[in-house]
Design goal:
The chain is an alpha+beta fold and 187 residues long. The protein is built from seven helices and eight strands. It has helices at residues 10-20, 24-27, 82-85, 100-111, 130-142, 155-168, 176-182; strands spanning 7-9, 33-40, 46-52, 56-57, 67-68, 73-74, 78-80, 90-99. The radius of gyration is 19 Å and the shape is elongated.
Length: 187
């Protein structure tokens, strides 16, 4: 097994975080994290410090679309406790890292059946796939009893329904190929 770093960027931990630990685990404090504070959201000053999770004011609910997974940072400025930087207001965060041991612990809990499992896929090495995750969740919501066969719901209708669902949820669209993979109709 490869060595797991003590801290890892979201882009490196995305699959482990998304597969095992819904983002509420960050907001609930289950996952430790730290982040580098950048520029103040409204003032021309820079924090340029790495802060631990207790220094941030975390939203009660964090959604996948609230994060830039590739750059490992929140899309919107975050509140930093006043006593930490002595500047009120919101700060842009340059990057965040999650504590690898916490992610591993959640992965272990998942393998023991303690966390809701997602259907497994086989094939190439797993990597960050937020588009696949979006399509998979939309399909599960549209078809809670399983995806009907292609004779009942042709691909063109499936594409359209998933696209409308994502649009109604305010999420980015995904490719037709991704929808077919998420529906189990293509590898």
């Amino acid at each position: 097994m490869a060595d797991v770093p003590i801290w890892e960027r979201l882009s490196a931990a995305t699959e482990r975080v998304m597969a095992t630990a819904r983002l509420s685990n960050i907001a609930d404090g289950i996952l430790k994290f730290r982040g580098k504070v950048g520029q103040h959201a409204t003032r021309p000053i820079y924090g340029n410090r790495v802060l631990e999770k207790e220094h941030f004011e975390i939203l009660a609910e964090i959604k996948p679309e609230d994060l830039d997974w590739e750059k490992s940072r929140p899309l919107n400025p975050c509140g930093v406790r006043r006593e930490i930087l002595n500047q009120p207001g919101l700060w842009n965060v340059d990057w965040i890292e999650v504590f690898s041991a916490d992610v591993t612990k959640l992965c272990s809990a998942r393998s023991k059946g303690e966390v809701t499992q997602r259907p497994s896929r086989t094939g190439a090495t797993r990597r960050s796939q937020p588009a696949f995750e979006r399509a998979h969740r939309a399909i599960e919501e549209l078809y809670p009893d399983g995806v009907p066969g292609q004779a009942d719901v042709p691909n063109a209708i499936l594409y359209r329904r998933v696209g409308v669902k994502l649009k109604n949820d305010g999420l980015p669209n995904v490719s037709d190929d991704t929808i077919l993979r998420a529906a189990g109709r293509r590898k």
